[in-house]
Amino acid sequence: MFTDIQGAWPTNERFILISCDETYFNKYFPRFYKTFTHHWQLPIHAHIIDPSEKSLSRLGKLGVSHTWCFTSDYDWKNAVKTFRISAKNDTHSDKEVKQWLYECYCQCQRFVVMGSNMTEKQSVIVADVDAYAQHTPSEQQAQMLFSNSAFTKYRNRLMATFCHFHPKQIKQVRQLSSMIVDQLNKCFVLGMDQKALAELFMDNRINLKLMEWIRHQDVKMLSDIEKHKMPLIYHEKGLRGKNRKVIVNWQNM
Which of helix, strand or coil describes residue 10? Predict the structure, then answer.
């Protein structure tokens, strides 16, 4: 499930990578595609988890390179059982735990795909599909971003909402993929992607300044929304943000 990837990895030297399941793809990708195409003018590569034929067809018509994978044959029952052993006193239903593990897989899979395919000549921006671009970066900002691997740091965590992986750190990118796969094959660990990012990139990366690049606080009030509009990238953190209306959809692309 982790490395059984279909489709072709892009050959572009610089591009933006998103990875999501079918639900997030249908809800958020039109806005992501429209805003990043306008403000960043970089190719976008989409990795879709459990896609429909319709979604793959839409990407083809847009000319967006894409890969995909399926989880239907994975032994989720055993993964839930193994997770329960490590979690010990967890009382949630199997259905709830499986959903947690599926979301964990979706969050981690972009780094697995990237680490397995990125070449020594590629710079890859990784972004959450429910984020969107709202300003065009200056030449100075772009030069800084592409000069090294780059992340925002929030509450001592390296955030993967929008970040960059530099080819000079290809060894760490490969390790990122193998660390995640090795751990999840043993037992799912929620937040595994952030644990691996912190271990491999915390001490050698560019700090993308909060409020210049992105704001990570929750969206609670109108004042939060106004503050979110200031950085280059907008990301509605938390359930309040996730439930806000997405303006761009497939009908108004």
Answer: coil
Decide if 31 contacts 126 (C-beta within 8 A): no
- Bridge-based pairing of strands 157-165 and 123-127 is antiparallel
In degrees rounded to 5, what are phi and psi of residue 34? -65, -45
Q: What span, in angstroms and rounded, lies between the C-alpha atoms of 158 and 178? A: 19
Instruction: List the chain pLDDT tens, one digit each, 253 residues.
Output: 788 899 999 999 999 999 999 999 999 999 999 999 999 999 999 999 999 999 999 999 999 999 999 999 999 999 999 998 887 777 788 899 999 999 999 999 999 999 999 999 999 999 999 999 999 999 999 999 999 999 999 988 999 999 999 999 999 999 999 999 999 999 999 899 999 999 999 998 999 999 999 999 888 888 988 999 999 999 987 655 565 667 888 887 7
Q: What is the pTM (predicted TM-score) of this model?
A: 0.94
Q: Is 124 exposed, middle or buried (0-12, 13-18, 19+ CB in 10 A)?
A: buried
Angle at 150 between CA 245 and CA 101, to 5 degrees: 55
